[in-house]
Amino acid sequence: MSELNGFTKSPDVVDCKATMQIGFLLLPEYTLSTLSNAVSVLRMANRLSGKDLYRYTVFSLDGNAVTSSAGLQVSLDGGFESAKNLDILIVCGGYNIHRYCDGELKGALRSFAKTRIPMGGMCTGSYALAMAGLLDGYRSTIHWENLASMRENFPKLDISNSLFVIDRDRYTCSGGISSIDLMLNLVGSIHGSELIQQISEQFTCDRIRSENDSQRAPLQYLIGGRQPKLVEAVSLMEANIEEPLNLDVLADCVGVSRRQLERLFNRYLHRAPSRYYMELRLSRARLLLLQTSLPLIDVAISCGFTTAPHFSKCYSDVYGRPPSNERRMGT
Question: Are residues 59 and 179 located together in one domain of the fold?
Fold first, then answer.
């Protein structure tokens, strides 16, 4: 056997006498589906093994009920001060995470980290860990909608767009059904591949995804695999938001003429490449407006606009309101 991320790894199912205690700290507007998916994997591991391999407890910071983004609540086991004897703590975030990362939460997480118990974040829970300084020196991930703001707010962190990341004693996943993948890999690192294959079959998962899987469906899955030039062009656009590429340069990089590039975009994405590029940059700008407190001019520059008036006009043309109004609506 060998040690992986602080836990014993074996290629076969092992007879572990100890029950692993996993605690979930719910933040306001957390994603309920992400929590239920994670818990379901642990429940199924117990059922299929016929053993009490995992126990899970649910907390809020102050012990009061927390409403999920779906408007529902789950029964709590107490406040965060009662989170004792855990083997892992997972912070569950969701919408508007920046509103809830106050001094009390950061202090509580930092205090817990002193116990050296592994910690993780699901959906935007990794943002809370980052705010508390608990992802410094670690690889991590977050939901794709929050990637831009996370990287903007924490430029020194190594933030991936993977479904999930396990880096030593830090466990993060992007939300949605990626919590299934995270927990399957956790269970597999301790109890082996046979058990997680059985769990996967119960959930009708066609395969067990790894850290190498990205969050969003690659463009080739949306338009088919016969247009590699178009996929390459979009990838270059996504990688050059702050300093947009000239379409002639883009076409040259891809190895087609500008006219050919325009035909590909119009046929498969139903818009001109310049329009697609503009919408891509404005989409990034909108996420930064909603998720950060960056000045408007900084948002504009980071998305390839040299002046605030030009940015405001383009934004209004696409979203029907100026960027300043977008920020007020999001508060």
Answer: yes
